[in-house]
Amino acid sequence: MTDKYRKNVGIIVCKKGKVLLCARADSFGYQWQFPQGGIEEGEDLVKAAKRELYEETGITNIKLIKKMPFSIKYDFPDGYNSIYEFKGQDQSWVLFEFLGDDNDIKFDMDPNCVEFKDFKWSDIDIAPKEIIYFKKDVYKKVVEYFKPFVENIK
């Protein structure tokens, strides 16, 4: 197994004090998470976040609110290591305010790679409870950092 971490951006989209949670298309039932994706070599964090957000949700009508000043690493659990060429991910996080409406959210921007099947607007405190087990600690830190900013968006 490699000891390398994939550079990744996690994206929180908020509207009126709620955050966007998306249900993964590749899971049975509903496994909720924030949009996220890889950062390409030399790509700016905000540019990567906007690109990934568009590719996964079709969202473009956003305003940058805050970037987390540090990244958070997490390891993939056993079983995932054979799927990925990395030990885990090194995630940087950004917060955007959503300026559009729910009809702007489309999961089929790339029909060959649909990541999500549904979405909901939720209190930010719910996110760590609904994320897959190996990302819970990351989500707790992210929620703690971004919660005051989300609550200020009315």
Q: Structural class, from secondary structure content? A: alpha+beta
Anisotropy-based shape: globular
Q: Between the first and last Cα atoms, what is the distance in angstroms?
A: 46 Å
Number of H/I helices: 3
Strand fraction band?
25-35%
CA radius of gyration: 15 Å
Q: How confident is the prediction overall: mean pLDDT?
A: 92
**Major sheet:** 8 strands, mixed
**Amount of helix:** 10-25%
The number of E-state strands comes to 8
How would you describe this structure in keywords?
154 residues; 8 strands
Report on this model:
The protein is α+β, with helices and mostly antiparallel strands and 154 residues long. It is built from three helices and eight strands. Strands 1, 2, 3, 4, 5, 6, 7 and 8 form an eight-stranded mixed β-sheet that branches. The longest helix has 16 residues, at 136-151. The protein starts with a strand and ends with a helix.
